[in-house]
Specification:
By secondary structure, this protein is an alpha+beta fold. It is about 30% helix and about 25% strand. Strands 2-1-3 form a 3-stranded mixed β-sheet, covered by helices on one side. It is globular and about 45 Å long. It starts with 5 loop residues before the first helix and ends with a strand.
């Protein structure tokens, strides 16, 4: 959509966004998407972390993301990977998330 990064909409200097639930930001992005005339075709994401193990929660995570994006859960993919003891993720110093979303004209 080329609408700027998250900081341009929710400046880190604005205290009201401190500790805000991430779904607030996602729902805002959905509003921008709908205003521009798009809808979600699908979403593919991978969360890289050692702990906690996400497998028991992946179905619920998919459902919550689908609900926020206003699409069927079948369009949402969430995978979890560990760092296998390598790099900051593997040493439990960091968590990384990658996400690709395909939009189509509504």
């Amino acid at each position: 959509l080329a609408e700027g990064d998250i900081g341009s909409h929710f400046p880190p200097s604005d205290e009201r966004w401190r500790n805000a639930e991430s779904l607030v930001f996602l729902r805002f992005a959905v509003g921008l998407m709908k205003e521009a005339g798009y809808k979600v075709a699908n979403l593919d994401s991978t969360v890289h972390l050692e702990r906690p193990k996400l497998r028991p929660s992946i179905d619920e995570i998919r459902h919550q993301i689908a609900d926020a994006l206003e699409v069927e859960t079948a369009r949402i993919s969430v995978k979890a990977k560990t760092g296998e003891g390598v790099d900051a993720v593997g040493k439990r110093e960091a968590v990384r998330a990658d996400c690709v979303i395909l939009l189509e004209r509504a």
